[in-house]
Amino acid sequence: MAVTVLDANGVAVEGAIVNGSFSHVSQGQTCTTEANGTCIMGEYLSLSRSFPSTAFTVTDVIRVSSTYVPAANSDPDGDSNGTTETVRLP
Prior knowledge:
Number of domains: 1
Oligomer: single chain
Helix content: under 10%
Shape: globular
Largest sheet: 4 strands, antiparallel
Number of helices: 0
Low-confidence stretches: none
Radius of gyration: 13 Å
């Protein structure tokens, strides 16, 4: 799951630590954004095929001198609320 962090001006944020969770996984997930503001969440995660889908939720974004505002989350392709997205498993 690709996660992109942008600042209030829509500029990619490098070095932000994104924390999140998948609904069918007991442990939280973390990734750090690259220069394009994107990181891959759960890249090495193995999800059970016994579930047709799982929900991914961003729980926090951490960056020095910045404040995470969950209400400002968005989803450019419009298939989620910007905070939680359902992921269909293959």
